[in-house]
Write a structure and sequence with these properties.
binds pyridoxal-5'-phosphate; 7-stranded mixed beta sheet; 4-stranded parallel beta sheet; 14% strand; 373 residues; alpha/beta
Length: 373
């Protein structure tokens, strides 16, 4: 880990080889309560600061009643995993209602289990609640109270482990049995189906963006940015954009949780040492997901790291443009702000960032934008 931000040109980039992989069945997400496509907002203040022609923000601060995009992956993965666990085939036009009926008839004693930095676990807890199932959600030590309370608010039992995200993952995997179904957004040897369905679930968000581009409602971006924890979200972004014209796909990590950039530099998956203690809690991961890895390694032209101050700066800039971003949510814009010159950003660029999370730590948010009394 290097404590200062860095930019690495990816020696392994090969965008043509990024998979065109699976998608969530188009019937499923619209069957969830409060489904609507999220907005694509223009961010003129951010464009001015970056010196680019335009910045578009895919605003995931409200998605299916949750403050992040993660419910898209958690819901589709819960559907596929529960059906597989019960030995049932996926039917035509899968919906929440059909899943509810199946669970009530055949799986009402199941408990959904997940490890999380916050957003994924809350989304799994919401799915359990919608299905009338119990949930156990495991979080790293030091997770802020507001995030724990939000998960409890979904009716889940929350367990706090000693250690970081990797320890939480190990604790969740250890619970797996006939009655405990693990819905993880990261993968490891022997556990790849469910996290693959998580990535497929994110395809709904990417399709919303590319549909808008194809309809001519927004410019085709020249630069697309994705923040990275274990890389599942980033893999979905490469699947959406690797074969499009963007001149640069940029992956962003905190300096203290640089497992993907370190792995890319080494050309193989590494687990980084040291505490992953960035305020960008969703990105505090020590090991890339093995099923996301190939697409992340082939799909990004450049990787950059950022400090917590860069994230704070981006939160304030999003606020100036009228959008409320959480720390991980602002990381995409932060990556550009910190590396304007290295990325060669200029007036020829139309930039797309994903605001992947709204405010999940309100006290910190008010501090950052300077409204705490
Ligand atoms: C808000 C937010 N953005 C981005 C990410 C990164 O996703 P991934 O872990 O799939 O790389 C996360 C992960 O938890 C997140 O919570």
């Amino acid at each position: 880990m290097l404590n200062t931000p860095r930019l690495t040109h990816n020696a392994h980039v090969d965008r043509a080889s990024v998979s065109k992989a699976g998608i969530a069945d188009p019937a499923f997400h619209p069957s969830l309560p409060d489904f609507a496509p999220t907005p694509l907002r223009s961010a003129p203040k951010a464009a001015q600061r970056l010196g680019v022609r335009s910045v578009l923000v895919k605003d995931e601060s409200q998605r299916l009643g949750m403050p992040s995009f993660k419910i898209l992956g958690a819901s589709w993965a819960a559907y596929r995993t529960i059906m597989a666990h019960l030995g049932l085939a996926v039917g035509a036009e899968p919906t929440l209602e059909k899943l509810r009926e199946t669970v009530a008839a055949k799986g009402s004693d199941l408990t959904l289990v997940a490890a999380t930095d916050g957003n994924h676990g809350r989304a799994v807890a919401r799915m359990a609640k919608l299905l009338g199932l119990a949930a156990i959600i495991i979080v790293p030590g030091g997770t802020v109270d507001s995030r724990i309370e939000a998960i409890r608010g979904e009716g889940a039992e929350v367990r706090v482990v000693t250690g970081g995200y990797d320890e939480a993952i190990a604790a969740s995997a250890a619970l797996s049995d006939d009655k405990h179904v693990v819905i993880s957004d990261t993968s490891w040897e022997g556990y790849t189906d469910t996290p693959g369905w998580v990535i497929d679930g994110y395809s709904t968000m990417l399709k919303e963006v590319t549909d808008e581009i194809e309809a001519g409602h927004v410019a085709e971006p020249t630069v697309v940015v994705a923040q990275m924890g274990v890389g599942a979200f980033a893999a979905a972004v490469t699947r959406g954009f690797a074969s499009r014209p963007a001149r640069l796909l940029v992956g962003v990590e905190p300096v203290s949780a640089d497992c993907i950039i370190s792995s890319a530099e080494a050309g193989k998956i590494l687990t980084i040492t040291g505490a992953q203690d960035s305020i960008m809690a969703g990105l505090n991961c020590g090991t890339p997901s093995i099923i996301a890895w190939d697409d992340v390694l082939r799909g990004f032209d450049v990787f950059v790291t950022i400090t917590d101050d860069d994230a704070r700066d981006a939160i304030r800039l999003h606020h100036d443009d009228g959008v409320e971003a959480g720390e991980s949510g602002a990381a995409g814009l932060a990556g550009l702000l910190a590396h304007v010159q290295g990325l060669g950003l200029g007036p020829q660029d139309d930039v797309l960032v994903f605001l992947t999370e709204g405010v999940t730590d309100p006290v910190a948010y008010r501090d950052i934008i300077g409204t705490n009394s």
